[in-house]
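Dear H.,

Thanks for agreeing to be a second pair of eyes. The structure we're designing against is below in token form, covering all 632 positions.
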């Protein structure tokens, strides 16, 4: 039996039906990704399943006493208490005494001489002895260990990523049969997203999640559920196979509709011929035509695609930004410690790092909104910068959608052509009614589209995008990728979306902690490999440190003479090294160009692999040369 099954779900909020006699079934240990455009009703479906809202109509079957946990998009801003207390909330009243006991223990640690607190701790301890309280405490500590958090920390002091870990633990503590996740990767850094992927892949809980992060979907989902025009369809396959099959389905649907529309047009011509259409023997044909008209009126066409067009300005100078040995610290903690680089026109630079590592600070230094404490940042000529703010600070809640985009006129200019603001906003899927309405009713995805509409009106030869994909649906993210690849200016992009980075950027700047910054060719793969190696080395060093040290006397090696073959190698190795370094330099220069990533004939995987091979061969040649030189 399935864990949960809904049939004939119908939901409407005044407009077209969000769910139109739809159904969904969730089986044990499934990891289902729910996919659909912004506004299709994905979050509504999650709220129905979690019991937060009721559908207008529908039947449900579920196993007895089913438990459903939910992790929402947003982290509560006013949540107080320790991590232990927040996680224990997931057990309801059963954990209240345990949570209070831990709170009072914390207070006793702060005030060890307070007898009233000590008495309260003793009283709570007695209550736990009389009930099953200690088992509950063990349960909380066990889940905290799984999510790698310290229960004594203040929840408010945690980073955004660790707050989401704590809330995930709270959702899991009651051992739900089904866990619902709404955009779980939003505001997580890349290491945090990768940790979540591995955690979810190992859990036995059935998952239903909404995400725009394609790399996350590929790693986690084993079934795709598609919500499109009120209908839910299930695809028992991986994400890539789903994309191919869905494209074939839409193509077939378009052909069927074209045949239907042609037949309808022919019947409309027939009925206009006059008296013969009203003869009794043709009444059946007339009724069929009326039915076709009704069917055509009820048809829900595929929602149009967002039309993104970047309003490019004059070309900037060839050299855009020159950074020379800059330093910046906050509260004596180094954020940037001696970083230098040159950014050229047409470069598309990704900026990555842990949350709180200083990515936005680096952006502000590059844009000269902040002054470095040491070193210098110089701008080239004719720079015009457009900035996408991840916090949506550029939107004015008092204004309408149209006024937020262009407050001074109803006509806008796109690459020299005049358009009406309402027509322009239709490219971003805003109806004229919505465009005239206040922005207070907009969803997170609609606000992101609105900010893109405002951004792309600005003539710019330098685009700065800080987490632009948050809240966007996958189709809009992919269209944004296409436009950024076509963009002839310079791009600075902060993102935790690995697929987006790998598809767009020509190089990556990684903030690696303690002020250290390194640059990598292409997307974030090379940086992630280095991070994995660092973790593996740290784990190996920790393991080695736990072993007892032993002293072993190393015998002095006997002196020897080089063989003829080794003497020949000593002569030829410098030329070999020079040849390897020349090939590496040429290939690196080729892959650093914007054109390389726009050319469909480019072999990124093969060239990246060859770069790694050249580095390994060069290093090996150097080591061999140094070893032979020392013995000669």
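And this is the sequence the design step returned. I haven't edited it by hand at all.
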């Amino acid at each position: 039996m399935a864990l949960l099954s809904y049939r004939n779900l119908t939901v409407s909020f005044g407009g077209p039906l969000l769910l139109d006699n739809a159904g969904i079934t969730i089986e044990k240990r499934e990891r289902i990704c729910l996919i659909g455009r912004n506004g299709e009703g994905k979050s509504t479906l999650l709220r129905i399943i979690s019991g937060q809202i009721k559908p207008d109509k529908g039947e449900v079957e579920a196993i007895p006493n089913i438990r459903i946990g939910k992790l929402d998009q947003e982290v509560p801003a006013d949540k107080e208490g320790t991590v232990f207390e927040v996680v224990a909330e997931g057990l309801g009243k059963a954990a209240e005494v345990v949570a209070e006991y831990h709170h009072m223990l914390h207070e006793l640690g702060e005030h060890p001489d307070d007898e009233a607190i000590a008495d309260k701790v003793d009283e709570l301890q007695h209550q736990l002895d009389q009930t099953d309280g200690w088992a509950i405490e063990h349960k909380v500590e066990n889940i905290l260990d799984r999510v790698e958090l310290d229960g004594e920390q203040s929840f408010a002091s945690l980073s955004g990523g660790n707050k989401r870990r704590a809330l995930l633990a709270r959702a899991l503590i009651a051992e739900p049969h089904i866990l619902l996740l709404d955009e779980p990767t939003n505001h997580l850094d890349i290491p945090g997203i990768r940790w979540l992927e591995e955690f979810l892949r190992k859990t036995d809980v059935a998952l239903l999640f909404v995400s725009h992060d394609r790399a996350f979907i590929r790693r986690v989902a084993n079934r795709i559920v598609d919500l499109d025009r009120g209908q839910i369809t299930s695809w028992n396959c991986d994400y890539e196979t789903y994309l191919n099959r869905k494209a074939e389905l839409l193509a077939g649907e378009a052909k069927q509709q074209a045949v239907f529309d042609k037949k309808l047009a022919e019947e409309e011509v027939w009925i206009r011929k006059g008296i013969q259409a009203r003869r009794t023997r043709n009444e059946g044909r007339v009724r069929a035509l009326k039915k076709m008209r009704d069917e055509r009126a009820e048809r829900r066409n595929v929602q149009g695609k967002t039309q993104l067009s970047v309003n490019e300005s004059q070309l900037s100078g060839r050299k855009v930004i020159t950074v020379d040995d800059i330093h910046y610290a906050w509260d004596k903690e180094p954020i940037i410690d001696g970083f230098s680089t040159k950014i050229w026109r047409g470069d598309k630079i990704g900026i990555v790092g842990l949350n709180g590592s200083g990515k936005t600070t680096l952006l502000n230094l590059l844009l000269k909104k902040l002054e470095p404490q040491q070193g210098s940042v110089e701008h080239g000529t004719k720079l015009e910068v457009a900035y996408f703010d991840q916090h949506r600070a550029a939107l004015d809640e008092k204004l309408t959608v149209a006024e937020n985009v262009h407050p001074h006129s109803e006509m806008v200019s796109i690459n020299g052509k005049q358009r009406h603001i309402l027509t322009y906003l239709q490219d971003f899927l805003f109806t004229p009614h919505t465009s005239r309405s206040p922005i207070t009713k907009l969803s997170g995805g609609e606000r992101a589209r609105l900010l893109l509409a405002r951004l792309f009106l600005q003539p710019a030869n330098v685009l700065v995008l800080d987490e632009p994909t948050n809240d966007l649906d996958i189709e809009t993210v992919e269209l944004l990728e296409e436009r950024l690849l076509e963009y002839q200016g310079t791009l600075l992009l902060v993102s935790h979306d690995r697929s987006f980075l790998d598809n767009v950027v020509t190089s990556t700047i990684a903030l690696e902690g303690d002020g250290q910054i390194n640059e990598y060719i292409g997307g974030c793969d090379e940086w992630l490999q280095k991070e994995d190696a660092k973790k593996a080395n740290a784990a190996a060093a920790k393991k080695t440190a736990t072993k007892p040290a032993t002293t072993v006397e190393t015998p002095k090696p006997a002196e020897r003479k080089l063989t003829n073959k080794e003497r020949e190698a000593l002569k030829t190795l410098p030329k070999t090294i020079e040849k390897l370094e020349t090939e590496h330099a040429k290939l690196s220069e080729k892959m650093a160009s914007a054109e390389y990533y726009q050319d469909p004939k480019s072999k990124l995987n093969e060239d990246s692999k060859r770069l790694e091979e050249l580095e390994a061969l060069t290093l090996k040649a150097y080591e061999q040369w140094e070893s032979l030189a020392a013995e000669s």
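Two observations from my side: The CA atoms of residues 189 and 354 lie 5 Å apart. Residues 319-530 form a domain with the Rossmann fold fold (CATH 3.40.50.300).

Warmly,
E.
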